[in-house]
## 1
Amino acid sequence: MAGDAAALTVDVAVVGAGPAGASAAIACAEVGLRVAVCELRRFPRDRVGETLHPGAEAVFERLGVLERVSEAGFPRHAGIWVGSQDGQRFDPYGEDAGGPWRGFQAWRAQLDSILLERARELGARVLQPCRALAPRVSDGRVTGLRTTAGDIAAGFVVDAGGPQQWLARRLGLAIRRRSPRLVARYGYLAGSRPVRDLAPAFLSDDAGWTWSARVRPGLYQWTRLNLAGPAPVIDGVPADLRGLESLRTAGADVSWRALCAPAGQGYFAVGDAAAVLDPAASHGVLRALLSGLLAGRLIAACLDSGQRHGNSPDHYRAWLSDWVEHDVRRLSELYGAFPEPPAWLADCPLRGSPVA
């Protein structure tokens, strides 16, 4: 374990060391705040890869990791193939005087390690492996954590622990559910398929969609979401990748949901701990990075001004709500244009009803 958290006192305690948690830690540590990051698993750890829009370059630069990300050898692409059973077209991201804009096909184990190392370099104390057991609460305010490495007293706690929404469940916060249960299947295949090497593909059909991409040399990843129910494993592998060696398959709950109060007295929830939408929104890692950065900036401003209560939680809630509503609207329009739109879309208002 990298350190002992017994009787530790910090300005910010972060649960989870993925892109959201590392970004929050970087934003806080670079202005001199004392930061502790609690991560359950050792790195490198397996995470589903993600196609990142070229706009991620500016975020990586802001975090101080663009050079390392560029040197990591992630596949780059100038756009995405989109279409259906009736045909496909290539949608480029765009270009400027410097040439075509290019996205990243991020290998998450590598990306997560780059971001966490940046936080560590800036002085964040990384406790790994370390399980967060419960928040410490005093007079209605979150004041730290109980962990397997000991108690941590903190001015703010950031939940970046992922879609289990750990802090919300322990505090009894309401969650807005916006879809029925959706489970995405994904898997990895080894071999060679040049047709998929230059750019990812997003292809829809009567039941849902399939995404596929080359994620490393000789390694391809696919993701399948059936919009009317769980996808059988065999149906998940896209036609252009069938015949390759299957390495493993798994599933993930991607039901649309968001915290009603992703920030409050002494806490912020970032990344998937704050909101989950299915991968077709294409903003999972980008939203994680930006929400972590914003939470870190707001925490730093609160602690710098000495006003721990302030309006920072309101500002963060409004920002996240606008983002989620934009993506819900975009997904609703996308799925509404399918040959057979999912029936539940008609019952999916732009503002969901909170449930505990």
## 2
Amino acid sequence: MKVVFAGKAGFPYFKGAAYDRIGLLCQSMENAGIKTTVLARKGIMPYGTVYPSRGTFEGVEYLYVNGTASRKNNYFIWLINRAIGLIKENIYIIDKARKGELDALFIYTQYSLNVIMYKILSKLFNFPIILNLVEYRSSFNTKNKFSRIDYRVFDNLVYRFADGYIPISDFLVEKIKNFSTSYIKIPAITNPDRLKSVEKHVDKEKYFLYCGFAAYIEIIHFIILSFEKIVNQEYGLYIITIGSPERISRIKKLIETSSKASKITLFVNIDYEDLLKLYKSSKANLIPLRNETKDIARFPHKIAEYTASGNPIITTNVGEIINYFMDNDNALIANKYDEIEYSEKMKFVIEQPEKAKDIGERGRLLCNKYFNYKSYSLPLKELIVKLKNHEKVG
């Protein structure tokens, strides 16, 4: 069996949850004997850098159809290259379908027109399309009027154009199940083996850790305010982020004005191996969720990586959390998004370190069962086979 994963440029060079999920889903299918190729129609890496336009990463083949993984510096050349990439992507998909080398097309995109285009190709050349759903786009605030309209169209209309789905949450399952039963719910996933060989930092202080994009500045501020309520001076707070210079500057100001500024360390754009070491060396990893549609619909990728570290996560009772975790069993869960309640869970780690360690270990065992990419190899293969045979998936 052969499948193509399209719609999201950047794999494998651009690091982030979206790209890691693409790779892990493909590795999951490779584990079931399905040949996968990640397709990109345009390059997005910095101009002037050299990245192979095709190759294999962690067993997954990738191809930039326009011949480069880098973004062109000249806007008009970039625009022309983008158009050429779109044409070449279509040619590639059509060629594979005609040769009988395309059993399914997986899509990871936020743009409605992409799904519509792929749907037309699927009807003309008889292959199913499977849509990866990780967010509810309508819940995102944006100043761009076109994006606001497109998000609504995507969530309210374009869902229906796919043949199969991979929703990440119960919220998204509810959005699709009225018109399709052809789906597999797959939560945040990771490769637990990545953490097994990682050694802890022996010279690091005791610390709590938060990792997330600088765009989540509200959550970062919440974490800082919660941390300020802890009297203990032995523990620090590590904030790991990536983002625009303007947003990084805002985070630095939040830290500088904190009453515990001397205990807060900011890391920006660190290497992945260093990131894993910091995960594994922390006393607890932080991932507070807000009781709003955006957080209810998603399932942060970091939860899978956090639990794989064997250290406890501290989160809030929102969205998917209740489906996998129990407070004081395999996670520490604040009942609501409240600074005082959240800080109490952080204090638990300080005051009862052995119990916190046991909670982290049970979280790791849960990760091996539910967040391990290998757990979904056979269900993915079954979905592809049934869609290809025009069967319903229960």
